[in-house]
Design brief:
heterotrimer, A: 237 residues, alpha/beta, Rossmann fold, 6-stranded mixed beta sheet, 4-stranded antiparallel beta sheet, 9 helices, 39% helix, globular, C: 255 residues, mainly alpha
Chain lengths: 237, 83, 255
């Protein structure tokens, strides 16, 4: 399970950041991070995946703390940033090989995983072409493949549906459900509330760096729809 | 970077040429590499024709400056947009 | 350790695909060829090129020795214009990593900060030394051809010690790139710091001898066959390099 305890990260010289985020997710959870641009979603996500440190609190996954044991923690995480970052001079395949060797996955497993993932994502022969020739959607899909290869226990996606075509969107939603059913934890940030309503069982809303909603989807939907809730929170300005 | 060409004619070439030839050769090679890369990237980089002039006119430093700086100045830098 | 190997190899492959090995080598070869030639034919050039009317060259002036020419090539050309170009090319890669988010990519993988930084150091050092060595060897051949023989083993020893200086410069560039965001500022600061270290090594005081530039003194003395050598500066240079790296790693952790 993932337990985030009192996570606080404020950027120097500004009030922006995230304050006192406490969140417990168990295996099989799909959790949505919802909030306006600049509310603190990406800050929280970057803290959880270890891009930057944080001022207070701790993050543990199955008892492994990111502060004390960053490498072991990161081995269990798959993270897709909002803009895909890739080596343009590599082919998709050699990129995946590189990722594989960083996670110390052997080549047989890589190939096996690749065959299934590539087929589902309609990659075809493009995997052997240079990444710099890929479209945004293809880069997005390559990142997805690269973060699923090592079967992470925690999957974190920053706005994953942006730039994906309907087929890939469908694949990603199905894959999220499947991975959750197999015992992973999925955490993602989004602006598409209708999809989140169907997909997630937990929801966190962040406004101005503070957690305003931290509930199960069923509880929340019994009161109002996500969209109504979101508007009532942000209307206080 | 002397631009006074007439002075070049008065130098005792037969004496120097065997030693100067490799330098000229490598310089041309470097310009060649820079031009090849420039041609491939000319639609990508900022103000390509200014760089072309720099490559061709500034001896030694021109091609090198293009290769270390010019080729990285990409138009529409998405990476900067994201940050 | 496997991660270190993988990352270093990636770094080298990326540099190879950008022809960096080729053009950086060409640059140092041209630098290495030009200096001996100009020294040899200084009088001819001055005579023929205008503007030298007032200057007379003593016809009996001693012909410089191979060692002196090699020294002026390395500390005059490689360590000035060569170093500046080298640092500008370094800033490109390290800063690009930062700005493109590639650093984030590495930081979210199970890669220790140390292997990331050491792989950067190793990768760029190998690229730099590949080019510098070829340039220096070409210059060596040219110099002994024009000015007479010089011990090859001393030259190799010199090159080995000089490579430690380059290692230090690369580590300095890495450290500074963890402080400063703008690529141009990184380059300017690194160049200024390197030149500062080159300048203070000239002072004849133990403190300055132990500064990172001290390794350059030791290297240059290999060429001049000075026997009173201060090998202690190898240790201090390595200490400074690891200091730079741990400082850089602390900065990245904090950010």
């Amino acid at each position: 399970m993932l337990s985030i305890n009192n996570l606080t990260k404020l950027y120097k010289g500004s009030e922006k950041g995230i304050k006192n985020l406490t969140l417990d997710l168990v295996k099989g959870d799909i959790c949505a991070f919802i909030g306006m641009n600049g509310a603190g979603k990406t800050t929280s996500i970057k803290s959880i995946v270890g891009i930057h440190g944080f001022d207070q609190g701790d993050i543990e996954l199955d008892g492994v703390s990111i502060k004390k044991n960053p490498q072991e923690f990161k081995q269990m995480v798959g993270y897709s940033p909002d803009t895909p970052v890739l080596y343009g001079n590599m082919t998709g395949y050699s990129y995946l090989e590189l990722i594989g060797s960083i996670y110390q996955i052997d080549n047989a497993t890589i190939n096996e995983q690749l065959n299934t993932l590539l087929k589902k994502l309609n990659f075809g022969s493009a995997i052997h072409e240079l990444i710099s020739t890929y479209s945004h959607g293809m880069k997005q899909r390559l990142v997805l493949i690269s973060i699923l290869m090592h079967n992470p226990k925690l999957i974190i996606l920053d706005e994953p549906f942006v730039g994906l075509d309907p087929n890939a969107t469908y694949f990603l939603q199905e894959e999220m459900k499947k991975r959750a059913a197999e015992g992973s934890i999925v955490l993602y940030s989004t602006h598409v509330l209708e999809v989140a309503e169907k997909l997630c069982n937990k929801v966190v809303m962040i406004h101005n760096g503070e957690v305003v909603v931290n509930d199960t989807m069923i509880n929340l939907l019994s009161e109002s729809s996500l969209s109504e809730k979101f508007r009532s929170i942000t209307a206080h300005e | 970077m002397n631009t006074d060409m007439s002075a070049l004619l008065e130098i005792d070439w037969p004496q120097i040429l065997p030693f100067a030839l490799p330098i000229i050769f490598f310089n041309l090679l470097l310009i060649g590499v820079a031009l090849y890369d420039w041609y491939k990237r000319k639609v990508l980089i900022v103000s390509p024709y200014i760089w072309l002039v720099i490559i061709l006119l500034l001896q030694l430093l021109g091609p090198i400056l293009y290769l270390v700086i010019g080729r990285r100045m990409i138009r529409n830098d998405y990476s900067r947009e994201a940050s | 350790m496997t991660n270190f190997y993988t990352l270093t190899r990636t770094e080298l492959v990326e540099a190879a695909k950008e022809f960096k090995f080729i053009w950086l080598t060409l640059f140092f070869v041209i630098l290495g060829l030009t200096q001996p030639l100009i020294t040899k034919y200084m009088d001819v050039i001055l005579e023929n090129v205008g503007g030298a009317d007032g200057i007379t060259i003593d016809p009996n002036r001693p012909v410089p020795s191979s060692a002196e020419v090699l020294l002026s090539t390395i500390s005059g050309q490689f360590n000035q214009i060569g170093l500046i170009i080298l640092i500008i090319s370094l800033m490109g890669l390290i800063a690009a990593d930062r700005n493109s988010g590639m650093q984030d990519f590495i930081l979210t993988r199970p890669v220790s900060l140390r292997s990331y930084l050491v792989s950067k150091l190793a990768g760029h050092w190998i690229i730099s030394m590949f080019s510098i060595s070829i340039g220096a060897v070409v210059s060596y051949v040219y110099t002994i051809f024009l000015f007479g023989s010089f011990s090859f083993s001393n030259f190799v020893l010199f090159l080995l010690l000089y490579s430690l200086w380059i290692l230090f410069v690369v580590s300095l560039a890495i450290l500074i790139s963890t402080f400063v965001k703008s690529p141009i500022l990184i380059a300017v600061t690194t160049i200024a710091a390197s030149i500062f270290f080159i300048l203070i090594k000239g002072f004849n005081h133990l403190l300055f001898q132990l500064s990172p530039g001290g390794i350059l003194n030791l290297a240059e003395n290999q060429l001049l066959s000075v026997h009173d050598l201060n090998y202690f500066s190898i240790a201090t240079c390595l200490a400074f390099i690891s200091l730079n790296l741990s400082w850089a790693s602390r900065n990245l952790k904090k950010a």
